[in-house]
């Protein structure tokens, strides 16, 4: 290892920025030289640039600006762009986050170039290979040199896939670190006033391919959301992905529906914090609502984050069952089945990850047992 090793972080979409910020901050406090590659997978400024400011992330050393496209076209552009940047900077370790196409592309590029990698949020599984993200997770974990798990179930998934235990570290959830840091700033009132939102409202975020990529699926989903809006006014920050299809299916401004542009990190979580209900198909929002104690209905047949159901406020629903489930959730209010947050969701995941990376860069053989001792 070089005397002054370099760590590069590959970020492409909103959840990546939120997970990376605590790790980048903690590595900086340990004096580790590092840089960020922004792939531009989320090309909308409200889905990417504002998050750098909200989360205190440094300016990227490269911005690939790949934008949208089919999985093949987007991944191909990422492969070409990332290879050039990795060769230029010659990092000692590349850290990837989550399960987006930027993560997959970075892992493939580094595997071909012989560059070591670390995966934050390793081991999550929906067991549905029809989800592009599931394929990304499996490939990323199989090629990574360091794997950072956010929940105990991830450890058993990785073990079942034959990943050596020495590579795996249970560290908690860095997305929760970011939420802890932001909590003092999360005030729903200014956002409600600016957007003219009533005191009691719901929030919906919907963009998954299975929900929005065909007219039939989009129509079924929008019909269910409109039924929810008959029970409570609903605010929909519209994701660039699926925007046109959802609008064509009838998701437009109305008496009880407010369709808005994407929000920055602090504004969005402020809105979620004040909501009586969240409807989503996003993975990260399931975790954020668990932390905030807000009832969450996830419009998917499965989740790679089952801990948000066993330890949180999340419930899986189909579009057909969404209106009735919303009525029950609104009547019941928030409740956490176990009475406590998931293990190690304590705001200290970033420092745990940073300690492992720093030790690894120095050549220390830090076993999972040693990591557990250091994370107490």
Overview of the structural elements:
The protein is globular, with a radius of gyration of 20 Å. It is an alpha/beta fold. It starts with 5 loop residues before the first strand and ends with a helix. It folds into 2 domains: 6-173 and 344-374, Rossmann fold, CATH 3.40.50.2000; 184-332, 3-Layer(aba) Sandwich (Rossmann fold), CATH 3.40.50.2000. A 7-stranded parallel beta sheet has the order 3-2-1-4-5-6-7, with helices on both faces. It has a 6-stranded parallel beta sheet with strand order 10-9-8-11-12-13, with helices on both faces. The chain has 17 helices and 13 strands.
Task: Present the secondary structure layout.
Layout: E1 6-11, H1 14-29, E2 33-38, H2 49-55, E3 62-63, H3 71-89, E4 93-97, H4 101-113, E5 117-122, H5 132-143, E6 146-149, H6 152-160, E7 168-170, H7 174-182, H8 188-195, E8 202-205, H9 209-212, H10 215-229, E9 234-237, H11 243-248, E10 257-260, H12 265-273, E11 277-280, H13 283-292, E12 296-299, H14 307-310, E13 314-317, H15 322-332, H16 349-361, H17 368-374
Parallel strand pairs: 1-2, 1-4, 2-3, 4-5, 5-6, 6-7, 8-9, 8-11, 9-10, 11-12, 12-13
Helix pairs in contact: 1-7, 1-16, 3-4, 4-5, 8-12, 10-15
């Amino acid at each position: 290892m070089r005397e002054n090793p370099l760590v590069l972080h590959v970020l492409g979409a909103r959840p990546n920025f939120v997970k990376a910020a605590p790790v980048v901050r903690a590595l900086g406090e340990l004096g580790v030289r590092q840089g960020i590659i922004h792939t531009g997978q989320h090309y909308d400024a409200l889905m990417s640039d504002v998050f750098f400011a909200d989360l205190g992330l440094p300016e990227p050393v490269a911005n690939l600006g790949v934008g949208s496209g089919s999985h093949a076209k987007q991944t191909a552009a990422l492969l070409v762009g990332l290879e050039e940047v990795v060769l230029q900077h010659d990092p000692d370790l590349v850290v990837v986050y989550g399960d987006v196409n930027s993560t997959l592309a970075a892992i493939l590029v580094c595997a071909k170039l012989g560059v070591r990698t670390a995966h934050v949020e390793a081991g999550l599984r929906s067991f549905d290979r029809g989800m592009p993200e599931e394929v990304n997770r499996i490939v990323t974990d199989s090629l990574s040199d360091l794997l950072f798990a956010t929940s105990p179930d991830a450890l058993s998934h990785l073990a079942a896939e034959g990943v050596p235990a020495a590579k795996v570290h249970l560290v908690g959830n860095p997305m929760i670190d970011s939420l802890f840091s932001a909590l003092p700033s999360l005030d729903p009132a200014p956002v409600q006033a600016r957007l003219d939102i009533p005191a009691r409202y719901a929030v919906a975020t919907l963009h998954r391919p299975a929900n929005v990529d065909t007219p039939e699926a989009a129509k079924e989903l929008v019909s269910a959301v409109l039924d929810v809006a008959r029970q409570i006014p609903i605010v929909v920050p519209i994701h660039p992905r699926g925007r046109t299809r959802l609008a064509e299916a009838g998701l437009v401004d109305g008496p009880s529906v407010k369709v808005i542009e994407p929000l920055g990190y602090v504004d969005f979580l402020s809105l979620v914090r004040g909501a009586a209900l969240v409807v989503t198909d996003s993975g990260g929002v399931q975790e954020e609502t668990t932390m905030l104690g807000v009832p969450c209905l996830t419009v998917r047949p499965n989740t790679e984050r089952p801990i948000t159901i066993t330890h949180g406020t999340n419930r899986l629903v189909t579009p057909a069952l969404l209106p009735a489930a919303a009525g029950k959730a609104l009547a019941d209010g928030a409740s956490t089945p176990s009475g406590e947050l998931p293990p190690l969701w304590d705001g200290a995941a970033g420092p745990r990850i940073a300690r492992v990376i720093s030790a690894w860069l120095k050549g220390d053989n830090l076993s999972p047992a040693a990591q557990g001792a250091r994370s107490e």
